[in-house]
Write a structure and sequence with these properties.
This protein has one domain (26-360): Alkaline Phosphatase, subunit A, CATH 3.40.720.10. Helices cover 38% and strands 11% of the residues. It has 14 helices and ten strands. The chain is globular.
Length: 362
């Protein structure tokens, strides 16, 4: 009998020690991306070069009342009120280069698929991720690593406005459900809201063939979160980049303000829902920057070097309330996977991935 007792104690000890090693409060992570939102608008609001340009807005003067103020701090509040009233006060924002704080991409492609691969895997892959084509990602994302763990299996969801996300996440291999592009909510127990979103998406296609309007992405995500209570979620909004490509600065600003409202909606749900309240970290970033002049702002890529310049925000129970970070830590998008794993008390499986963002950790 003593041998059996000693064996059980010896077997249980490593498990208890492993459990005791988790010192973070984070149990859930919501990773939010918004395609092509420049750090310039995030930190300074509407751009004085663009806000009243007749070639970039439908009607001259229409944006001034909504978005313009001579003080950049006030302009950014007009554009993104939740970000600057809540996220910046209770969380942290990195990437204001006017203050000497840099966040960059490591990949040299500087467009969407390589950017999302870097955000989701922890390193660039310029040898294999060289286009936005619908090719299954050969790399394993942080989402797939978590999906393979018993504690997270079936608790990882992804949503995106761009129809390439099922390939970036490689849903065929990972088994992670991805509602992206013009996907609909499916299953035997659809809510009335999901049925309505399905109908409206079929009737309101939007201006782009491969990117749906962000309201569909947001509300599909919110309904699934309420029903399934996932532990890890990716929501990838897309409108700002496509409006920018179309040289519509007015719609670009409107879509940014709407994105900010979606962040508020999501955070308020998290903070009022048992199981998420005080147990959830929100990390927000973008897949690339873009040009800073009238001739280049619509584009991005290796020919526009400043497309490398991005930003990262975070808010959660473990992340110090640093506000607008002014010191330069030289951050990269590739640091996000390790950061998420450490917040969850886990070690990231890819040893070659970038290290975690120390400022986001307790």
């Amino acid at each position: 009998m003593k041998k059996v007792v000693l064996y059980l104690i010896g077997f249980a000890l490593p498990i208890c020690m492993a459990h005791a090693q988790k010192t973070t409060k984070t149990e859930n992570v919501f990773l939010i991306t918004v395609d092509g939102l420049r750090w310039q608008e995030l930190f300074r609001g509407a751009d004085s070069l663009f806000v009243d340009d007749t070639g970039m807005v439908e009607k001259q003067g229409e944006l001034l009342e909504e978005y313009w103020h001579t003080d950049p701090s006030r302009r950014r509040e007009l554009l993104m009120p939740f970000t600057w009233s809540t996220l910046a006060k209770a969380g942290q924002l990195h990437g204001n280069r006017y203050l000497g704080n840099r966040v960059d991409l490591r990949n040299n492609m500087l467009f969407s698929y390589p950017g999302y691969n870097e955000i989701l895997t922890g390193r660039a892959d310029d040898a294999r991720i060289t286009s936005n084509d619908k090719n299954n990602n050969p790399n394993i994302t942080l989402l797939e690593h978590l999906q393979q763990m018993p504690a997270y299996r079936g608790k990882v969801l992804a949503f995106g406005s761009w129809d390439v996300f099922p390939y970036i996440i490689n849903t065929e291999r990972s088994g992670i459900p991805v509602n992206a592009g013009f996907s609909t909510a499916t299953g035997p127990n659809l809510s009335d809201t999901e049925r309505l979103i399905n109908r409206l998406q079929a009737e309101i296609r939007g201006p782009w063939a491969g990117v749906r309007l962000d309201p569909f992405t947001h509300h599909y995500a919110m309904e699934a979160i309420k029903k399934q209570r996932p532990k890890v979620v990716l929501i990838a909004y897309g409108e700002p980049d496509d409006w920018a490509h179309d040289n519509r600065y007015d719609e670009y600003l409107h879509s940014i303000r709407q994105f900010d409202a979606y962040l508020k909606d999501l955070w308020e749900y998290i903070q009022t829902t048992p199981g998420y309240t005080d147990k959830t970290t929100l990390i927000v970033t973008t897949d690339h920057g873009r040009g800073v002049e009238k001739s280049t702002w619509t584009g991005h890529g290796s020919g526009i070097p400043r497309s490398r310049e991005i930003w990262i925000a975070a808010i959660g129970p473990d992340s110090p309330s640093l506000g607008e970070v002014k010191t330069d830590a030289g951050l990269y998008a590739a640091m996000i996977p390790n950061t998420i794993f450490q917040l969850l008390g886990l070690s990231y499986p890819d040893e070659k991935a970038d290290p975690a963002i120390e400022a986001v950790l307790p």
